[in-house]
Amino acid sequence: MSYNIGLSGLRSTNQALDVISQNIANVSTAGFKAARAEYAALYAGGEAGGVEIAQVSQDFSKDGSKEFTGRNLDMAISGQGFFVTKNAMGQMAYTRAGTFNKDANNFIVSAGGDKLQGYSVDANGALATGVVTDLKVSASNLPAKASTSVAFKANMRADAAVPTNPTFDPTDANSFNYSYTSRVYDSLGTEHTVTQYFVKDSANNWTSHYYMDGAAMGTPATQALSFNTDGTLAAPATPVTLTMAPAGADPMTVTMDYTGTTQYAADFSASYDADGYSSGELAGVRVDDDGSLYAVFTNGKDLLQGQVVLANFANPNGLDKGDSTSWTSTFASGNATLGNPGTGGMGSLTAGAYEGSNVDLTGELVNLMTAQRNYQANAKSISTADKMTQVLFSSW
Fold first, then answer.
1. What's the pTM?
2. What is the pLDDT of residues 9-60, one digit of tens each?
3. Does CATH number 2.60.40.10 belong to domain 149-274?
4. Separation between Cα atoms, residue 392 and residue 281, nearest integer Å
5. For the chain, where do the domains classified as CATH 2.60.98.20 start and end?
């Protein structure tokens, strides 16, 4: 019996050494989770029969180190959850290794070529959360979009003086108080300037003169602005409709919304927000912390392409190990629960970084020495049992 007990110890320790060696070998592997060999006693008829490795568990509760790279498609999970990928055979796998790239067909793929899964967008660019599919970035150029609205907000200085020149002339600074230029785009993506010249007529009353590309606009040429005694805007109460006829492009109708414009005894200030843009080529991709995937274009615009989803399991240790950084679901793990990063118990996502290994190298080296001592002790027990048997036989 002592031979079998020692032999079981050698076998179990050898398996434990394999686990420790794998941990040490993957101390720098992205998304690797440290494993641990768990021993169990063997009994036969109530008598001790040695030991065995009951299971090899992995530490999913401890995050690996966060390695910041600045790469647009590197992602790190903090907390619970796995990235969902699909291989060429259509099989789902789950991983913590967040080093992704864009392949030749613009799919987002792992280092092994598996496609990252998430929610796609519909024809209108809205997120379609019903179906999980392969995440892909559109390779087409972004066509130009004509401007249709300008949200203009300013403060007219309440104590400003009426201009000395009563006849407005855009070339004479003495005929107006302030000017401000907004940029809009026509159907061809050509940029045009809309300049507003503000003239104070009397207390609480102003006139805005509209010019496009340096020429006076015909409809309308001016717009009266009036303010209440508390500095809030009294008129216009609704957006002003400007019509433009750029050469070679479709006629434009742009609404100018003055909501939020005030008249206080403070310096003149203005800002605007206009829709529309010129055409652009794909310049790169961006992932936000909520998993939203954007295509970034040379014109400074970005379009939503989808959203990364995470998966979680009731029993992560029940997952079946694929390679060193991926797993597949089993009956023991339960079905995957999908969700957005940072919601429903899912971990948070950090873009521009990846999760490193969670192996504690110092601890593994100590475990290695302990396992080696166990191996030597079991080998010694077999050697001692052999000597005792020799003594027994020689005494006959």
1. 0.76
2. 788 888 889 999 999 999 999 999 999 998 888 877 767 777 888 888 899 9
3. no
4. 88
5. 149-274
